[in-house]
Design goal:
- The chain is mostly helical and about 70 residues long.
- It is built from 3 helices and no strands.
- Helix 1 packs antiparallel against helix 2 and helix 2 crosses helix 3.
- The radius of gyration is 11 Å and the shape is globular.
Length: about 70
């Protein structure tokens, strides 16, 4: 499969890789398949770069909303 890309207005890319990796690891730990975990991590990281600061991470519900927007396309 392929990974979704999300159009973002990047404010601060500091910690983008950490955001992706952390979200990916969390999704894998919850038992998600690799592709689903990678999609979740991509959505999480896309939201993270829209915020100022590396420690200002998105809420879980916001990630689910971003994923739902992608799935409707």
């Amino acid at each position: 499969g392929t990974l979704p890309t999300f159009a973002v207005k990047a404010v601060d890319t500091t910690g983008a890789g950490d955001a992706f990796n952390g979200a990916f690891a969390a999704a894998i730990a919850q038992g998600q398949p690799l592709l689903s975990a990678a999609k979740f991590a991509s959505a999480f990281a896309s939201l993270a770069v829209e915020r100022e600061g590396a420690s200002n991470m998105p809420e879980y519900e916001a990630v689910l909303s971003r994923l739902a927007q992608y799935e409707r396309k």
